[in-house]
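Write out the bound-state structure for phenylalanine.
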Amino acid sequence: MSWNFEEINITVQKEIQEISDEIQLESFRIKYLGRKGLIADMYASLSSLSKEEKPLMGKNANILRNTITTFIEEKKKVFRAEQKKANRSFIDVTIPGMEHSVGHKHILTQTIEEMCDIFEKLGFVVQEGPEVETEFNNFTALNIPEDHPSRDGFDTFYLEQKDSNQKDQNLVLRSHTSPGQIRIMKEYKPPLAVVIPGKVYRPDAVDASHSFMFHQIEGLFVDTDVKFSDLKGIITVFLKKLFGRDLEMRYRPHFFPFTEPSAEVDIACYLCKGKGCSVCGRSGWLEIMGCGMVHPKVFEAVGYPKGKYSGLAFGLGVERITMLKYGIHDIRMFFENDMRFVRQF
Ligand code: PHE
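---
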C-alpha cells in the first residue's frame, strides 16, 4: 500500500485547527499515534514495500509522526494556559469566608496610653527619653549621692566597666524614668509640664512582683509658683480618673534625694477596700507612686537660676497600677505573652 503524504498532511492540519478541548485532542492523538493508529499502520506496511520505496516511506512516516507530536504538544500548552487563566478569574462565592483576627494593643500599652491621655488633658506633654543613660542623668543630677545603694551594681545595670575618673559619663540602663526630668530641663526653660513614659531596668531576681524590666511614667511640672497643693490636686484628679471617683487615697511622708518634701501615695486596697488582707499586707493600703517637690540641687544641676522656679515631680510604676486595676497577681504574666492572658484585655 502506498500513502499520499501531501493529502494526509492537509487533513491533519485541518483537523488540528478544529480541536477545541483536551478530549478532542486525545482522540486525535489516538487516531494518528495510537497503537492502532495511522502511523502504526504505516510502519506495519513498510515490510510489504519494495527495497526502493521503503526508505522514502519510512522517512515520510517519521516526519509525519514528529509533526503530529509537535502539534499535540503545542495545543496542550495553549489549553493549559487558557485553563490557568480561567481558574484565576473564577471566584467561588459559595466558599465560606475566612476570618481574619484583628490584633490589639498589649494591656500595658493600653494602660500607658490611658494614663498619658489623662495627663494630656491636664496640660502635660508626652515625651520619651533613651533607655541608655549616663550615670550623671540617672543619679548625679538627681542629687543621688556617690555612695547611695541604688548606684550599686546590684541595683543598676552598668553597660561599661565603672571608670572612677569620669564616673558621670558611665553608661547605665536607666533604673527609673527620673533622668527624663534632667533631659527636659537641660533642653527647655519653664514653664513646662511633661510626662515621660518608658521602660526601666533593675537587676532584680524575677518573681511574682519583680521583673528586671518594667515601665514607669514620670511627671514634671516646673514654673515660678508651683506648690505642693498643685501636686496633690494633679495626682488626685489623675487617680480618680483612673480608678473611679470613690477612690480613697493618702499621702505618706517619704524620702527621695531629688524631691523635698517627698511623699508616697497609697490607695485603698482593691481587694479588701481598706479592711486589711493578704494583698495589702493587712494595712488596707497599697503604695502606688512616689512624688514630691523638685529639690533645689536638681535645678542647680540643670543650670536653672537659684530660687527662681519651683516644681513638682512624680513617678509611678505602670505594671503595679495595671495589676491593681485589673486584679493581676503576677507581673510575669505581662511578658510571657500567653494568648489566654493577652486576649483578655
Ligand atoms: N524615681 C522614683 C522611683 O523610681 C519615683 C519618683 C519620681 C519619686 C519622681 C519622686 C519624684 O522610685
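---
Residues 176, 178, 218, 256, 259, 290-292, 313-315 surround phenylalanine (CB under 6 Å).
The longest strand covers residues 213-223.
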